[in-house]
TrEMBL record, chains A, B:
Organism listed in the record: Lacihabitans soyangensis
PROSITE patterns named among the record's database cross-references: HTH_MARR_2 (PS50995)
Protein name, UniProt field: MarR family transcriptional regulator
GO biological process entries: response to stress
Matching SUPFAM superfamilies: Winged helix' DNA-binding domain
Alphabetized PANTHER family for the sequence: TRANSCRIPTIONAL REGULATOR, MARR FAMILY, TRANSCRIPTIONAL REPRESSOR MPRA
DNA sequence: TTGTAATATATGTAAATACATATTTCGGAT
DNA sequence: ATCCGAAATATGTATTTACATATATTACAA
């Protein structure tokens, strides 16, 4: 369905620029809603899921809170409290970094890895809801989004 | 800058699909951050701003809470409390609908209209930060985003 | 060494979000 | 008329977000 129909907008957008702005936000909410739906049974928030994925990408290589923030999509979030939550669930370990008592080393635990595998398996469902673009189109979409941020 | 660099991702994405998912979310956060920056001086949240724009689009035609939800980007939000906030600031009026005492008519006030004009003038600044795509490219981006949601 | 700024993280908090649930009113069916 | 389910909005509340600020540690200059 076209964006205009989805948000019941009667008059057309002033420009493609303006529509694109709204379109990105609307599509993001659309994705967010789906992700939430798939994550809900696992009792984990999207932000926590993303942090866990970052840690998983590091394999057994520890990473500091600051490095997590660097890699996060939403830089504003409170990484240390997100790590708290994951720690409470036993999905990550956290210990003082040797040689720098300010920083701390965060690593995903085996429990975290296996949990993430389960979630990832389930969340593949989104892919089925989003298979309308060809590989070439996805590529073009990525090019445009990269370019929009200059 | 490429997405991979922005989020310091060392290994490449598994697919263009997966990158697109992350790219939409990242770009949305990027826009969100900018919008917040421009809205901050006006002491209004993005959601409130969007509701005000919906009401403005109606001109003097009143609209119910349910119709606002229909037109919102984020359907999950609490439209009635957003309207509360705008009402408290004097930007909207709200009265019981004639013929249906459940529903209520919400309209933007002259104060709301003039406030929105000020905000819109300021928020044009984002446009300057986002002028890297041509009209044709914005059009193509819109086509792809519309299509991704089937 | 001592003071000062920078770094890394943690904490406090007001507001917003995501839901669940309640309240009021309306539209039929019986 | 009255009962019942649906509709429209309001309210409750746990969690998350967006910041500001605090704490602790380090680096470095004088």
């Amino acid at each position: 369905m076209s964006l205009e129909q989805e948000i019941k907008q009667t008059r057309p957008f002033k420009s493609n620029y303006e529509k694109a702005l709204v379109n990105i936000m609307f599509t993001n909410n659309w994705i967010h809603f789906k992700q939430n739906k798939y994550l809900k049974p696992f009792d984990i928030s999207i932000q926590q899921y993303n942090v866990l994925r970052i840690l998983n990408g590091q394999k057994d290589q520890p990473i500091t809170i600051n490095e997590i923030i660097d890699r996060m999509l939403d830089k504003m979030s409170n990484a240390s409290r997100l790590v708290d939550k994951l720690y409470a669930k036993g999905y990550v370990s956290r210990e003082q970094k040797v040689g720098n008592r300010r920083a701390c080393d965060v690593t995903i635990t085996p429990k975290g890895i296996s949990f993430l595998e389960d979630v990832t398996k389930s969340i593949k469902g989104i892919e089925k809801d989003m298979n309308s673009l060809s590989e070439v189109e996805f590529d073009e979409l990525n090019r445009l989004l990269d370019k929009i941020r200059k």
